[in-house]
UniProtKB/TrEMBL annotation:
It comes from the Eukaryota. Residues 1-48, 166-213 are annotated as: Disordered. Belongs to the RMD1/sif2 family. The chain crosses the membrane at residues 430-451. Residues 35-48, 181-190 have a biased composition (Basic and acidic residues). This is DUF155 domain-containing protein. It comes from Cryomyces minteri. One of its GO terms (cellular component) is mitochondrion. Residues 224-405 form the DUF155 domain. Keywords: Membrane, Transmembrane, Transmembrane helix.
């Protein structure tokens, strides 16, 4: 299956949080050799860009291969079919000494770094968490403060403007509209826009609720999001730490003896998504560019929204890989039908292929949560839905699902051909059995007729010889001969 294009191309998605709906995408034109901008480019940016916007950051300019050693990681793993959420929460809280909170089908977990060696055979354990003067955990206070933020109430104001921005769109906007046509106010809105006053009021309310600075200890915490459908998303962990946590979750059990995971996969079968992130309070709003996430704060609710989309993309990658394997196994079937006119497969092999095809489609459309918006964004935090939708658009989840379903439909057509072939083969076998039975019946009947004629002919020949040899005896020999013939006929 083809990978999502945002892995290979420099795609930008602006995530809804604060001001400036347009004009920022022009900053992300390809740099070719990352040379300093020309004088005319600098002049154009000064004219077009509102205050506070910057060009690509150092992290966004870095190649992906060099980001790992310099930036924090965001990694998702699809390791199992499902996780038992309550049991996993109890295990992480008791054995890893981490803070947990359950959001519908997502378990949010916070570790205080650096991680310590675990006890009782477990690999890691969270460092002790600092407490406030009132005796409450600093982490708990931060979680509660993030949940009480009011700036999310403005997310629905400009939902239509958030989405994937390409280079063609940015060039078209800059060429068709000069900065002199609509003078800008200090907040970046145009005087010719009838909604500018409303937008400024909305933006001011957003700014008042948004944290203007980043906590100095923001990178001293690692965050983990465990999803019920078998995906784990890590923020700010090393690869070694991620694998240690996954190993503890996979090989551990609850108090009742049941495993925390359902149908775990082999490590070589794990599906992963890898990003990097940094904090930058100077940007107008969060953004993701070329798998580089830039956030204005360490708000875990923002990360939760992004993690939902990342987890769905990772689960979808698992389905895509399984579909690719099924395609690899079944690709010779149409070719063989075209060349030989027969399947050349046993009935059990055909039924297995059909089962895998139907299983893939059922998992994608019925047994997973990747098709629709999670209930969390409808019932608990509806104002986070635009942020989730923007990141979902960056990951191209909807078109990938459409491609996957289209491939499933093609394979279901193949499954119909295989089913017809099985039915034809079965009917052909039954027909041949009937033909063989008819032939055997005819052969038995013919054999019986030939035997009767042979016996009768032999009996007549023997009777004629006795009549010639014993003619003087009168009719005395006729009685025994007739008796023998009657016995033969009987």
């Amino acid at each position: 299956m083809p990978a999502r294009s945002s892995k290979l191309s420099e795609k930008l998605v602006l995530l809804p949080e604060t001001t400036s709906e347009e004009d920022e995408e022009g900053l992300f034109e390809e740099d070719e050799d990352a040379a300093p901008p020309r004088d005319d480019e600098v002049e154009r940016r000064k004219r077009v860009l509102p205050d506070g916007l910057r060009d690509k950051s150092y992290a966004e300019r870095l190649p992906k291969a060099r980001r790992t050693e310099k930036l924090a990681r965001v990694t998702a793993y699809c390791t199992a079919q499902a996780y038992k959420m309550r049991a996993t929460a109890d295990f992480v809280r008791d054995q890893h000494a981490a803070r947990t909170k359950l959001y519908d089908d997502c378990l949010y977990t916070v570790y205080h770094l650096p991680l310590l060696p675990g006890s009782d055979g477990y690999r890691i354990r969270s460092s002790p968490v600092l407490k406030s003067p009132g005796g409450k955990s600093v982490l708990d206070e931060q979680i509660e403060m993030n949940e009480r933020r009011e700036y999310r109430e403005g997310y629905f104001e400009d939902e239509a403007v958030y989405g994937v921005k390409g280079h063609e769109e940015s060039e078209g906007e800059f060429s068709n509209q000069s900065p002199d046509q609509h003078p800008k106010h200090e907040d970046g809105s145009r005087s010719g826009d009838p909604n500018s006053s409303i937008r400024r009021e909305s933006n001011s309310s957003l700014r008042s609720g948004s944290p203007p600075r980043i906590a100095p200890d923001a990178l001293t915490f690692g965050e983990m999001f465990v999803f019920s459908y078998g995906v784990v998303v890590f923020w700010n962990f090393t690869e070694r730490q991620e694998k240690d946590i996954l190993a503890d979750l996979t090989f551990s059990a609850s108090d009742t003896g049941l495993s925390l995971v359902t149908r775990p996969q082999q490590e070589e079968d794990f599906e992963t998504e890898e990003f990097h992130f940094e904090y930058n309070p100077e940007i107008p709003r969060p953004r993701v560019f070329n798998d580089m996430i830039t956030l204005r704060s360490g708000d875990h609710m923002i990360k939760l929204s992004m993690s939902h989309a990342i987890a769905q993309s990772t689960k979808l990658s698992f389905f895509e890989e399984r579909m690719a394997q099924t395609m690899q196994e079944a690709q010779y079937v149409p070719r063989r039908l075209a060349l030989t006119g027969s399947l050349g497969m046993k009935r059990e092999e055909v039924v297995k292929i059909l089962g895998r095809l139907f299983t893939s489609r059922v998992d994608v459309n019925l047994s997973s949560n990747i098709l629709t918006t999670p209930p969390f964004f409808w019932s608990s935090e509806p104002t986070l839905s635009p942020l989730y939708a923007a990141f979902r658009a960056y990951l191209e989840i909807k078109p990938r699902i459409q491609v996957l379903n289209e491939r499933c439909r093609v394979f279901l057509d193949l499954a119909e051909i295989l089913s017809d072939s099985i039915a034809d083969k079965k009917m052909t076998r039954i027909t041949w059995i009937i033909i063989v039975l008819i032939v055997l019946s005819i052969l038995v009947t013919c054999s019986e007729v030939f035997l009767r004629f042979g016996i009768l002919s032999k009996g007549k020949g023997a009777g004629a010889g006795e009549g010639v040899g014993g003619g003087g005896g009168g009719g005395g020999g006729a009685g025994p001969m007739m008796a023998r013939l009657s016995a033969m006929e009987l």
